[in-house]
Amino acid sequence: MSDFSIPGVSSKYNTDKMIEDLMKLERVPLTRAEERIETFELQKRNWQEINRGLARVQDSAKKLFGFENPFMERLAVSGDESILGASASREAVEETRSVLVKKVARADRFLSDSLDNDFRVAKGIYGFSIGDREFSFSYNGGTLADFAATLQRRSNGLLRSSVVKNTPSTQVLMIEGTRTGSSNTISFLEDSRRLALDAGILKQAAAGSRTVEPTPETVKTPAGAVSGSAAISEGKLVLEPQTRRELQFSPPIRPEAGFMLEFTVEIEKLPEDEYVPPEPPSGPASPDPGGVTLDDVTVRNFGTNPALPSWSPPPPPVKTLDMNILSLRQSGSSVRLPPLRDQEGTQTVQVPLEPGSGSIQALIVDNINTHRRVSVSAVRFYDPDSRGDLEPKNPVATASDAVIEVDGIEVIRESNEIDDVIQGVTLDLRRPGDQAIDLEITPDRKTAKDSIIEFVGYYNQLISQINIYTSRDETVVNELDYLSDDEREQALEKLGLFQGETSLTQMKNRLQRIMMDPYTTRSGSELALLAQIGISTNSRTGGALRASRLRGYLEIDEAALDKALESRLESVKDLFGYDSDGDLIVDQGAAVSIDNYIRPYVQTGGIIAYKTSAIDGQIDRTNREIVNLERSLERKEQQLRREYGMMEGALQQLEDNSRSLESFNNRNQD
């Protein structure tokens, strides 16, 4: 019974191997279809890679002529970055300005006295104001550090507070405003006032602040001065040309520590009539000398003709322009104040006062000018650190405005970031300086250069892609020395994938022509080619012809490019994008031509999309073919197994019959 078998389950004829061998032959069309799918998917991926390369070139080209092209970028270069920083937008004008940083804006920053480590903040309602904003919060009492943390958390970003251990046994509380400017002083409200006094943050302010209004009683004409013409109008003392007046302080001011004299001066420039010299005098008139007549004969007397002295026209009136017109009468003597700026408009004068320097009796305004009207108003003596009846006891800094001079014009702002004085420029004030700093607004040539280099780089990458896809020569890969080992292997796998694809060859030729064509610029033929700014194929070196440089790659002569950007920036801009008809639409240039050529390839429904869509169609059809083949193979295998099973059954039956006959014959012989 060792040769017993069940057809379809076990086989002594090895029909499974025969079926497997037959099915291998039947699966050849399926294997080929699956290989076609892999080829189609590889082609699709690489067409998509070409599409990305085209898109990178197009995007970099658009950057060179679009609304945000780099040729319009500006740089603000400060003569001293430690004093003045600056940034410029595209709206900035190429120019050089002079900026003197007299003061930087500051925020209030106060320290407490040294407090014991066990100092406690009492329960209460603590309120603060910073400029025009107020806030308050309820505090249940606690340590100084806990109060500082609560204050900072509840201040909505208006205050910063912290505690510093200045000695092992003591600590100080720091409270600082986050907003600069003289209008953003910190005021202590409610229980904060008590805490500020107890902790030594504030103290009682010294008395003595005073405002002096120009009135007929306070404005006097100094003895011996030319009276001139002056008027008091709307709180202003107005002095016409060549007029001197005193604004008297009664009682006299006795300066205290930290006090300031402040007043506002307005300068008005008056028209200057053109000097016309008078006509020379005619001289004395001689009477008629007469004569004698006898009969019909008249004898005339000779007239006199005296010699007259030579005449010269009188000199033109003297014009006086001197802004050194302010002084104080202090302890009986005159103290000269700094000169004013000769500019129309108002300017604020601040004079620090020294205690013990003597009492101040008057402000003297001597308008010696012939064509300037001067007005003085808002005269006051005050302590800039005072907070009403309180003042900081340990101020690190007090809220104050930034003061700068731009080309001699004084500008006052609350912030150290000033963006409304020079068009398109934001000034960053860092510290006061003694001298004016040159601020040069120039084109950002580096950004323009980097954008051009980026464009050429993406262009060369695209050309290298096309060379690899359309050639089977490994040299086109090996000469790309910037590739990593992995990138080189991947490039070799793509070699010749689209060999014979004429659309890629045509694309490469067209791109090369675009980069070599002449374009209209404002410099005419002197700058009409990319080669004239150092961008070319440069295929010849030392008279030798290099094959790698015949493949369409561009090279950049950076020295030539730098020179062109320095001397002819606008023409370089035109070379990439130029408005030829004045309709504010850029319609010519190398970058414009690249964009126009590539757009049909990469746009939605474009050439690349059509090619990948066609490949998708081939993949879909091949997938359906594979499904049908798999079903056919399944039926074929079932058929073969059924037929071979029937064959094995028939053979088994024949063998059984043969054994039965053999057994029968054996029994008959016995």
Automatic annotation (TrEMBL):
It is found in: Bacterial flagellum; Periplasm; Periplasmic flagellum. Residues 277-287 have a biased composition (Pro residues). Residues 399-655 form the Flagellar hook-associated protein 2 C-terminal domain. GO terms for cellular component: bacterial-type flagellum filament cap; bacterial-type flagellum hook; periplasmic flagellum. Residues 619-657 form a coiled coil. Its main location: other. Belongs to the FliD family. This is Flagellar hook-associated protein 2. It comes from Marispirochaeta aestuarii.
